[in-house]
Design the sequence.
């Protein structure tokens, strides 16, 4: 039995357009085809349920130029990225030049290494997609996404993402190029294109426009964030506490071994 999620008749008609014959099995059985259409509509609506919106994350890993980091932050805010993860550097080591005041509109978390981040992503059921040009990478034009929260990893402007890191990623995706005068796009440009592509696929709601610009919401100050922490902020606090406790235990064991 197929159970449709809550929807209006108009929504159902609209989703049926996206479930055309090209996307359905062709075995000649009308009943099977009907059930396939219902299943397709149900899956699409689950993906597009505003209460279960797929979250976007961005991983900044070994990016060297400060203007690129700032531009990435700006793009993340523009495309409603839930959180930015910075790997291998601390806040005092990062320059967010060029973010155009968007820094205060997004949560940024720091991880010592990529494997620590991967552990965090696994615990929170978040997919890790590497954005890199490789022979086995999937083109973003094919919408190679899943109905799960997804983190997009961007690497160094020159050397890209190391092969050892690519191995721990769930998928590798790339932006196809059609000209032959450059080997790749700027990393911040690539980030913007991929985020926009994913946001459209995930049916994110467009921000409102006023006076030739998108309306900017009033940001929360530090006191408001402290008094009203989000569930994600609380999860991260508990995660960091558990890591500190684990490190203390490891250091204690090392001290005992040295003493013995």
Sequence:
């Amino acid at each position: 039995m197929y159970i449709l999620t809550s929807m209006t008749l108009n929504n159902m008609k609209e989703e049926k357009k996206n479930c055309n014959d090209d996307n359905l099995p062709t075995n000649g059985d009308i009943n099977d085809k009907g059930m396939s259409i219902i299943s397709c509509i149900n899956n699409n609506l689950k993906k597009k349920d505003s209460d279960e919106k797929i979250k976007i994350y961005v991983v900044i890993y070994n990016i060297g130029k400060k203007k690129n980091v700032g531009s990435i932050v700006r793009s993340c805010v523009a495309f409603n990225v839930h959180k930015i993860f910075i790997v291998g550097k601390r806040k005092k080591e990062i320059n967010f030049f060029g973010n155009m005041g968007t820094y205060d509109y997004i949560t940024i978390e720091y991880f010592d290494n990529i494997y620590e981040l991967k552990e965090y992503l696994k615990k929170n059921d978040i997919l890790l997609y590497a954005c890199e040009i490789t022979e086995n990478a999937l083109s973003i034009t094919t919408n190679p996404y899943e109905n799960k929260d997804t983190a997009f990893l961007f690497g160094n402007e020159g050397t890209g993402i190391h092969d050892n890191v690519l191995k721990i990623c769930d998928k590798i995706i790339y932006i196809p190029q059609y000209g032959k005068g450059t080997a790749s796009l700027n990393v911040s440009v690539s980030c913007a294109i991929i985020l926009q592509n994913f946001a459209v696929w995930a049916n994110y709601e467009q921000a409102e426009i006023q006076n030739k610009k998108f309306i900017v919401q009033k940001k929360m100050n530090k006191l408001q964030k402290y008094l009203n922490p989000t569930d994600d902020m609380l999860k991260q606090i508990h995660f960091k506490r558990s890591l500190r406790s684990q490190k203390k235990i490891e250091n204690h064991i090392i001290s005992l071994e040295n003493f013995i």
Notes: The beta strands are 56-61, 83-87, 107-111, 127-131, 138-139, 150-154, 171-174, 209-210, 213-214. Residues 231-259 form the longest helix (29 residues).
